[in-house]
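From the pipeline queue, job 12 of 40. The input is one protein chain; the requested action is below.

Action: predict structure.
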Amino acid sequence: MGSIAIPTRGLAEYIDDLAREHNVRYIRTPNDALADVITRLADDDVVMDDVELLLLALERAGVIASTDVVPLHVNYLREKFNVRSV
């Protein structure tokens, strides 16, 4: 699995298409439940949307390299919240 070209637009569709192409879907694990408890206890509720969960599932399935997850996530959040890159 090599590095991919990181898109800067259309991230939700790109991530959704990639998951569909590889037949990947998010399945909640016991570690996910533990992470939710830890963040709640730290008073830092983190709620990931469906696209973010798919991105996590794609990494877990080995479709996306770990080194590509953060730039994809950042670009997705920039697009979602309409923030320009710095």
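Job complete. The chain is about 55% helix and 0% strand.
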